[in-house]
Design brief:
By secondary structure, this protein is mainly alpha-helical. The protein has two domains: about 90 residues, Arc Repressor Mutant, subunit A; about 60 residues. The protein is built from five helices and three strands, in the order αβααββαα. Strands 1-3-2 form a three-stranded antiparallel beta sheet. Helix 1 packs across helix 3 and helix 2 packs across helix 3. The longest helix has about 55 residues. InterPro entries: WH-like_DNA-bd_sf, WH_DNA-bd_sf.
């Protein structure tokens, strides 16, 4: 079927990622599957285009929000989006092995970066917990000293 809805191939790729998921997906999840997306802004742009055409619905999911952070934007396909994705399933090209490998390597690089960031954050949080443990031990000792003084 020709692309008579005038969507760029990137728009269709984003639509397919959302359509293929069995739940609402975050912009980060979509970005991680797009070899051409350097940041979430590119995905937000595509989501806005798809939402303007009634192909996806987006919202901020409070249940997935981390403390002190804005809830992530999530997306699901509408019935119209599902129909377009189904109609364009045959349009998905079979990429040459070299390009598929390049995409996999890019995804792996992004995963390594994410792993490094998460690992560093875990180390930082462990250090903060140790600092708080020491503070709590000091506070407990002060409370015991006050009890001895009062008694």
């Amino acid at each position: 079927m020709p692309n008579d809805i005038d969507l760029a191939s990137e728009d269709l790729q984003v639509l397919h990622v959302i359509h293929d998921a069995d739940h609402a997906v975050t912009t980060t999840t979509v970005r991680e599957q797009m070899h051409w997306a350097d940041d979430s802004a590119q995905i937000r742009y595509r989501l806005d285009k798809l939402e303007d055409r009634g192909l996806v619905e987006t919202w901020h999911d409070d249940e997935r929000a981390e403390p002190h952070q804005m809830p992530p934007r999530v997306a699901e396909t509408t019935d119209a989006g599902d129909a377009i994705a189904d109609d364009h399933d045959d349009d998905r090209e079979t990429l040459p092995v070299e390009e598929r490998m390049a995409r996999i390597e890019q995804q792996l690089d992004r995963m390594r970066d994410t792993y490094g960031t998460v690992k560093q954050r875990i180390v930082e949080l462990e250090e903060e917990v140790e600092d708080h443990d020491e503070d709590l031990d000091d506070l407990a000792e002060d409370i015991r000293a006050l009890r001895r003084y009062v008694e």
